User: Fold this.
Amino acid sequence: MDFLVAPEIQRAITQRAAHGIFGYTEVPGDWYRAISSWWAQRHGLQIPREWILYCTGVVPAISSAIRKLTTPGEKVLVQTPVYNIFYNCIRNNGRQVVENRLVYDGGRYHIDFTDLQQKLADPQTTMMLLCNPHNPIGKIWDRTELEEIGALCRRHHVLVLADEIHCDLTDPGQNYTPFAAVSNDCRQNSITCVAPTKTFNLAGLQTSAVLVPSGALRHRVERALGTDEIAEPNTFAITAAVAVYTSGGPWLEALRSYLYQNKQMAAAYLKKELPQVQVVPSTATYLLWLDCRQVRGSGADLADHLRQKTGLYLSGGAQFGGGSEQFLRMNIACPRAQLYAGLQRLKRGVLAYEAWWSEQF
Assistant:
């Protein structure tokens, strides 16, 4: 995000820096208590200390779990379009990607449970990566949807690895349901990755938590994180996480309100100034998923044109899979004036691209 971190974080890190010694550190009890308190108060999930494992990041945790809990050649299911790094985590470890494509009805996405059931029933499918809330479409899966996913995965012996890093970035009045809170099936057959990094702009400090309710499964995950040497914090990671989880609530509420207003502004601008680009309605994340199917040409070419001609960096939809070649992803976590300037560049770039396309064809 293009926002300064909360003052509480700056003060905590400054105080820690004044200590002057930056050697190895351990994970203190305050870190476990801060995480448990945050999830209990904000999300209604009681997390015992023993569930929680430290990791340097959500993506390292996902890759490590895939290596330890599946075997080369097996299939890992993802619901597409989805965060493009999921594909790297799967393929770089010698596993196969299997897609359960989300169905887009021109306005919203929903799950094709018939297809999901068929894909999960394949004995070669041994893990499902669940994105909740879902990146890039910004959808919060409801309890009924999560319960059905959990029941299907349990029935077909497919482990659920839930990436819930965007869980706190919901619109005002919108709440997400942790996968592990839905049912015993979901709880005992899941690993959940969470972090303050997206919510509080801390990605450079490399801090996350892995929640594993099942004792037997947790032993394997702990071995995986230790083997891959991603279970030790840097000097400032713990300090920052404890600071935000104990006193970052008011800053987060202000952020959620600001991001929601940014979403509303962007949608209104595009509806008026560039109606051929439609915002897919969302209730979470600071990302807009833009439907550009009415713009001639390819989404990848459009993204490249925007970058070269206007300096606006958007993510082309093709990298997220699921037949999203005609979509773009836009980050709106920035001051409103900066967002407005970006929207003007988008309009200017799309119109120029359409004019160029018409001349060529």
